[in-house]
Amino acid sequence: MPKITNREKVLVALLETSSIRDAAKSSGISEATIYSYLKDTEFLAEYRNARRLSVETAIAQMQSAASEAVERLKELQYSENPAVVARCAQIIFENAVKGMETTDILERLETLENEHQKQIEEAAKPNNRKRF
Length: 132
Hints:
Elements: H1 6-16, H2 20-27, H3 31-39, H4 41-76, H5 82-124
């Protein structure tokens, strides 16, 4: 089995702890060394990529659990407790509205981005370049 480098130890410790001090304790590497690693653009890019992957994994897990939560809400909306029914209705309605708003905003953003790209392409055409 290949030997784990200090950089790899620090990377894992940074992902598993909430501070540089805790990462240093966890990895057995000094805080000063960790700070020097974080100044290294290659290490920093690797760390950020690992963090991004970690967050994406957590988001995927939440999305999976969201389906189960929706099913539970749908069941609870028929509860005999009026407060539970009211709260379920509120949650379902508010999230439906947020979903519509988000979809509308994303469509508007996509339209703006497409228009902007067309303007860039049009300006880049040889016959549209201004001569000074």
